[in-house]
Write the structure tokens for this entry.
Amino acid sequence: MSVIQNMIQTYNLVYLVQKDYPLEIIVTTDLYHERLKLANTKCDQAIIKASKQELDDSLKLLVLPDEQDDHYYLLLHEDLFDETQQYGQAIAYEYTRLIDFADIKEKYGVANLRAAQFPDSACFLFLAEVRAWFRGFYLYYNLTSVENKAVLFSYLCGTVPEYESLLSFDLTAHMQALAEFYGQALAIGSYVNFDVSLPDYLKRHHVHELLKAVQDNINTISIFENYDVIHKAYEDFIQIKSKETAPHVHSHTCNHTHHDH
């Protein structure tokens, strides 16, 4: 059995996956050309060509189904298969995304996931990203038997300072970064068996309820299990932040209105 098949089988056992997905995994040294081969429309081709630099710098890519091809393709760069066993984290991350996108495809009957807009995409994409980072890192730590202190050190001295500039100010503009950070924090907490403390720059935001809702449901099998709770917390957080950033208006008895700048 190949390391890839072994990884998928391990994932299915750990996360109780019972469905079979139409997935093809391609190991390559050139993600850009492999992705270009999978383009079925001129529009898709144009998007890929415009993303050449990004694809050249990438080590992994999940290609979603469209109207002409209902398969999922996972492109993995050969460099992932070195002694660090990075492929484990990459496969678990993308396979989680595949499962969650398959759920949304089924729920809303979306034929073209490459270009589709679906209801509530902002909250779904945030939660899917947290789940992917969480499962990817949690499985990777377990498969490579990393020492607890090494994992905690990487969190405190690597992850926390790395995200400070993005997550210190306007969180709503960096929800992807928040999802990445929190997925890793939850994976580390689960691996070492206690909650890691969040940095002060996150505690300043009114994000506690959203993160708590995500943490309480991080081990659900389906992304849509208890989804309403997370969705409400997400919407509340976005609303609070939008009120904070809205210009404040106040009136005086002199019958005209002043705006704070």
Observations:
- The two ends are 64 Å apart (CA to CA).
